[in-house]
Design goal:
This protein has 3 helices and 18 strands. By secondary structure, it is of the alpha+beta class.
Length: 352
């Protein structure tokens, strides 16, 4: 039987052009090669090149790190610039739903603005509360009206943080937090020729402000402009919401740009133990309950390159606040209405 040279791997043809070399293997030139490096066989020499798998994994890791960095930066920015309790409920998503198992999250801020009789009542309450010596009997009703409007339809800047996940079959679910409001929703998209119709429904909760203060000790409701309603604290308000958004959009340029328009209706039910400081060192708890109704339009755009986008959205419409407040044995029925505008901004990223 003929003898074969020792060390020859009989399982590999001598003419193969490449081989993966383990760590510590010495090439013909005496070089030590890292594990996973691919060696090209040429005419009497070995040429090394990086492993393709390693470079792809490295790029994926860098992409995930970039997405996490953007989201963390957005969340910190929202927390610093948007600490507040604004009553806006931004949607922050296009009509098109995500594919199954695809997840998108982001952070930003939302600013709820009020106009008309609602804003007038808030300004009146602010002026009455600032009067020296306390609130006069003739001004109590106006003070209650404006304070309830501020507590429920809060004109203020708020942080926004949200995430969405595709469920397949044209369905999607989402969860978001805006100041003192948490919202979860489900929606389905219908394809109408070149237009997408998104039909959804959301349920939410209004959370009490754990950091609210008692009037008489420096507490006050504060809006985004830095103004305040002296002698009042509405931080205990809590409740639930239900809303229905309908959106129209297209799927063209989805990974670069998306635009949507639609309508949004919301009903909110709330209760609270409002605290009033009508005179020097006199703090009174006033049980309150009521509702807020909003109906309006929404439009938005999402721009960027996958996996990162900037989202801009503008919502506006009509809202009405109806409530019942019992203060010092007298029941008041604040009922206020007016227009509202809520611009919102966020950075979002795909996490898959």
């Amino acid at each position: 039987m003929p003898a074969f040279p020792r060390g020859r791997d009989l399982r590999r043809p001598c003419t193969e052009r490449s081989a993966v070399i383990e760590r510590g293997t010495v090439t013909e030139r005496g070089a030590v090669v890292e594990r996973g490096a691919v060696v090209e066989r040429g005419a009497g020499s070995l040429a090394m090149r990086p492993s393709l798998g390693r470079s792809v994994l490295g790029a994926g890791a860098r992409g995930r790190t970039l997405r996490v960095a953007v989201l963390v930066t957005g969340a910190v920015w929202a927390g610093v610039l948007g600490v507040g309790c604004g009553a806006g409920t931004p949607l922050m998503h296009p009509a098109q739903v995500l594919d199954a198992h695809r997840v998108r999250a982001g952070a930003g801020a939302s600013h709820h603005l009020t106009f008309g009789p609602t804003e007038d009542a808030i300004e009146r309450a602010r002026a009455v509360g600032a009067e020296p010596g306390g609130v006069s009997d003739s001004d109590v009703e106006a003070f209650v009206d404006g304070s309830v409007a501020h507590a429920v339809a809060t004109p203020q800047l708020s942080p926004w943080v949200g995430a969405r996940a595709g469920l397949g079959g044209g369905n999607e679910m989402g969860l978001s937090w805006t100041g003192r409001r948490v919202r979860g929703d489900l929606r389905h998209v219908f394809e109408l020729d070149d237009v997408l119709l998104s039909v959804g429904g959301g349920l939410g909760a209004v959370l009490p402000d754990l950091g609210s203060n008692t009037p008489g000790t420096g507490g006050a409701a504060t809006d985004a402009s830095g103004g305040a309603i002296p002698r009042f604290d509405g931080g205990s308000i809590s409740g639930w919401t239900v809303d229905v958004p309908l959106l129209l959009g297209t799927e063209a340029q989805e990974d670069v740009a998306s635009a949507w328009i639609g309508v949004h209706a919301l009903y909110e039910r709330f209760s609270a133990d409002l605290v009033y400081d009508l005179g020097p060192d006199v703090a009174t708890v006033a049980p309150a309950q009521g509702s807020r109704v909003f109906a309006g339009a929404v439009a938005g755009v999402m721009l960027g390159l996958r996996p990162l986008w900037a989202v801009l959205e503008l919502s506006g419409g009509y809202q009405r606040v109806s409530s019942e407040v019992t203060l010092d044995g007298t029941t008041y029925y604040p009922s206020l209405e007016g227009f509202t505008l809520t611009p919102s901004f966020a950075l979002v990223a795909d996490l898959d």
